[in-house]
Amino acid sequence: MFAFSIRKDEEPYVKEWAKGHPEIEVGYTDELLSPKTAKYAEGADGVVVYQQLSYTAETLQALADQGITKMSLRNVGVDNVDLDKAKELGFEITNVPVYSPNAIAEHAAIQTARILRQTKVLDEKIENGDLRWAPTIGREVRDQTVGVIGTGHIGRVYMQIMEGFGAKVIAFDPYENAELKAKGYYVNTLDELYAQSDVISLHVPATKENTHMINSSSIAKMKDDVVLVNCSRGALVDTDAVIKALDRGKVAGFVMDTYEDEVGIFNADWRNKTFPDKRLEDLIHRSNVLVTPHTAFYTTHAVRNMVLKAFDNNCELIHGKPADTPVKID
Ligand code: NAD
Ligand code: COI
């Protein structure tokens, strides 16, 4: 098995897995999988991958040309895989759908609380020696109605945390969870959720249907001073529409751990370089916008599970066993 883009913080877990599987030869590199680097996997039966870049047709072809069609992702999202090409080439793909929902939900909840209490503004003021209270007054979480879009693994944990703060939590999901339904969390339509929520947090996948689900017409249906939280996928949000709504004061705050143009920008060092995206630069410097570079998942707990589960999955694939968490590619 060969793994691409293994970071320093993942290396101990790769070694832990390899130690427990002496029958498997494990190789790895810190380089991203690309048409150029695919050759590093030569002779392997399967690859374990995670990367910020897309798994393009060309990349998949480069693996297939070496007879490698068993690929295990160390993450949840599969929106960056050219699934049509994967199908054409006969790929078997696995992901790790549940490595630590808490990691992402906790981050979303922390950022929600931070934006409501204006901690970014306070921190900046304090650093500059301005220790006055006004006008940096906060909103208490318990006074908010928090609308959760998507009640899957992560959305459900976010709901629990927000309830722990005392918020009124409502939710929308076309596939309702029986337990949440029995407890009366669901509203019937997204429009109802938009109309009632003071905070709206997205926990849905970036499917074609969900692309830009937050746009100027959905924002128009929301309450004034709404706070938007996107720790899911950048493509869910029409960033320009949110910027306009921030400028008008309709949206009071925006939490973004994901950004529609993040590929090639997030998880890179831009110090002493020209920042490549003016729109993102503007958002980063706004006092009512909290940007994190897709780090919601990034905890020791999550990373260990991502690595160990992806290697287990790939081991199953190369032994011809049915994968525990296959990615549906038809
Ligand atoms: P999940 O599959 O467990 O749950 C997603 C839920 O969304 C499902 O219940 C589905 O029915 C629902 N849904 C789909 N479209 C909807 C819509 N239009 N309206 C309402 N509900 C809808 O997924 P998850 O593991 O909870 O992941 C949620 C999101 O978090 C995904 O976008 C995933 O890629 C993202 N994610 C982000 C990070 C990060 O570091 N920021 C890490 C992991 C996952
Ligand atoms: C995911 O697991 O889908 C994430 O968003 C985290 C990142 C490692 C891609």
UniProtKB/TrEMBL annotation:
D-isomer specific 2-hydroxyacid dehydrogenase catalytic domain: residues covered: 6-327
InterPro entries: D-isomer_2_OHA_DH_cat_dom (IPR006139), D-isomer_DH_CS (IPR029753), D-isomer_DH_CS1 (IPR029752), D-isomer_DH_NAD-bd (IPR006140), D-LDH-like (IPR058205), NAD(P)-bd_dom_sf (IPR036291)
Key words of the record: NAD, Oxidoreductase
Keyword Oxidoreductase listed: yes
Molecular function via GO: D-lactate dehydrogenase (NAD+) activity; NAD binding
Source species, domain of life: Bacteria
Domain called D-isomer specific 2-hydroxyacid dehydrogenase NAD-binding: residue spans: 115-296
PANTHER family xrefs: 2-HYDROXYACID DEHYDROGENASE HOMOLOG 1-RELATED
Family stated for the protein in its record: Belongs to the D-isomer specific 2-hydroxyacid dehydrogenase family.
Protein name: Lactate dehydrogenase
